[in-house]
Amino acid sequence: MKTMTPMGCFPESNAPDTAPLSAGDYYVQVAEYGNDETIDSYYLSFTATPCPTVSGYMYTTFQGDTIELYPYEGRNIALLVPSPTLNDEVLERIINVFDDAYDYYAQVTGREPTLSREYNGLGTIAVVSSTCGAGCAYLGATGIEILDPYFDILYEGVHNNDEFDQVLFYELGRNFWFYGDSLEYKEPDMSGSVTSGYAVFMRFMAMESTGVNPAPFRETDFATFKTEVKGLVGLYLNDPTLNWSNTLRIGQAPANSMNLSGADLFASFMFALRDRYGDTFVDEFWKEAANRPTAKSTQDAVDNFIIASSLAADSDLSALFTDEWRWPISESAREELDSLFGPQDEYALDAFVFGNGRIEINPEKALYTDGESVTLTAIPDSGWGFDWWTGDASGTNNPITIVMDSDKNITANFIAISLSPYEPDDSSSEASWIQTGETQEHSIDPIGDEDWIKFSLNGSSAATIETSGVGADTYMWLYDGNLNLIEEDDDGNGLYAKIDRTCGNDPLSAGNYYVKVAEYSGSSTIDSYMITYSATSCSTPNPSPGHNLYLPLVRRR
Predict the structure, then answer these.
(1) Cβ partners under 8 Å of residue 254, min gap 6
(2) Is 0.90 topped by the overall pTM?
(3) Nearest to 350, CA basis, from 394, 292, 392, 302
(4) Domain count across the chain
């Protein structure tokens, strides 16, 4: 028995032949399959069920065009799509998720957007052919548009893998942006760092809250994308030349592999605060931000952000923002935080040196706020080495980072080390001679030191130059007499370097040669290492003068 494929009211997107039939007359043709037999009798059955009708709605786009869309209603949002025949289960899944995302935004911000673009009292998400970007949304009011191809990505992702693209989560966040007066930077500073940064960060929060399976972001796995955003703060902190003024203020992020912007850096700072102070920080922060006064300047907006963060964390965070994160704060904001949390304790750091050297302190200040981090680096003079810390620090690590929770006295202890007898040998003009078969002991000190050695060849020769020792890592360069680089090596002898020139392939010709040796990374000293040089002539020896060779002459008959 043969049956026709059922025609559904809501067809699968990849099976257009299952679309419903419209009103009208239809004909059915029946025949024996092979057209070579008769059928005495057969039954033909027919059933029809009216499809639910979705009436068109004339929607006016943000750009003023009027188009017909088909509305599907949820609890909080109405989804307006260009076709009445999309799969109802997929649409229901999309609507339910964004209803839940709407609930999350309302719970976190403590309010709902003004009803602007609406259908039957519900905020609209409309699928259109042209708008201000991939998606577009009103700020602080209902109304979202998404371009056809981006809605297709969302629809197909949900249909095929129950995967949700991020665009609408981002745009929905903009509907819940109520903080322009208190947090936005003022021209000519880049207000988008905060306004768009809010949408970037809250997009992640809304997707976490709804528990969806995120689709890739521009062909990048979503988890990888999220990690990249969170990691921007680390890139920022690792570059001491960066501060608030040359990043967020101008809408820039540290150089990164995904070309992320200042808005993403703002989101990264929000992630850092959430990770430090817990999930409740996000809920409390936006409520506190809404209560801050109108900012008359960019500095007022920055102050509002720091104070709202402190209130949400229930702790004075001025030291975190100014000392660790390099944000500016006004004196009036400090006074307000003092009135809210009490004056912060301040402590002095006294650093001393025993021996010959110095201590580099970062940041270097007269007084430090309670909980502030300070990095100390011991730098020995030539002929001296750092040994250990004493006082309120201990151990041999260098540099060290301490937390100022009391007045501290710290001493860096330096000890004299034996200098190489070949010093100074810091340049080619100061190079020390080495003879074939000789081994010399050298040292790399201070950090960044270089040792130069030279040798001379009378003719074409094989030569081997190598360093050796215990626990260090050397790098070696070989130059000709005009200081043209011939060869370099890092690990020809384990962590030590070795250059080996042979007669068969790459002998050295007659002349003077220079060898430069340094510590591999340029960031450490080497108390002692050995360098060995040997050379062998490649020429075929001639008979010594005064010795004749006679070969017997054999005559054959």
Answers:
(1) 232, 235, 236, 239, 242, 247, 265
(2) no
(3) 392
(4) 3
